[in-house]
Amino acid sequence: MANRQTARGLVLVSLLLGACGLLPETRDTMGNAEKAKLNLQMGARYLDMGMLEVAKEKLETAVRLDSSNPETHNALAVFYERIKQTEAASESYQTALSKDSDNFSIKNNYGRFLCEQGKFDKGVALLQESMASPMNTRPWFALTNLGVCHAKQNDMQRAEDYFRQALQSQPDYSPALQEMQRISYQNGQFMSARAFLERYLGVAKHTPETLWIAFQTERALGNSKISEEYREQLISSFPASKEAQQVKTAISK
Known about the structure:
Blueprint: H1 10-17, H2 32-48, H3 52-65, H4 70-82, H5 86-99, H6 104-116, H7 120-132, H8 140-152, H9 156-169, H10 174-186, H11 190-201, H12 208-220, H13 224-237, H14 242-252
Helix pairs in contact: 1-2, 2-3, 2-4, 3-4, 4-5, 4-6, 5-6, 6-7, 6-8, 7-8, 8-9, 9-10, 10-11, 10-12, 11-12, 12-13, 12-14
Pfam family, one: TPR_16
Protein name: Type IV pilus biogenesis/stability protein PilW
Keywords: Repeat, TPR repeat
């Protein structure tokens, strides 16, 4: 199954919204708890920017200054996922949840993580709790992750239902739009696949997969000129991707 752009960013979104300025600095007059919070916000920013070494430093400093903050362990878990340390990520998620069992952000991230590890029942349960939390003002994160979780189990109807719910909550949420492009193509609904791609491109850039599906969609619709444009864009923009190799093979057939 193709790699999915799952909605793992809820912890980063919530922390970044609370940050002051681009990269806030600690001051000597601050107490440990306040310094820890700023290091957490900086760590989340660096993590979002892909600067993993400095993100690790800031997040570990935040834990050292105040180990009681569940969001720090939540962010650390996301960091460990990024560097593919699955066991450390699992431990950090469990620690985060033990410190705040009602935190919808932690439940979203941990539930998504469990689904990616094939632990579907527990993952779905946590995602449903996150989605249903009255404190969760961004339910489309959990809804999209629920859709991905069901897609991994080949329950495509329920997956589509969740993606559509996510888009009802947030019509321009790009991961859900990309999922609906894929599902529409798989269902032979080529005009729908094109429409979801157009919506996706209004808020995000092409990925190898969106180009690959767009190529197949336009070819299925008989639009050889447009499909050729997608083929060229895929090969030129993402030459090392598996989709670029697939499109070369498809053309040669």
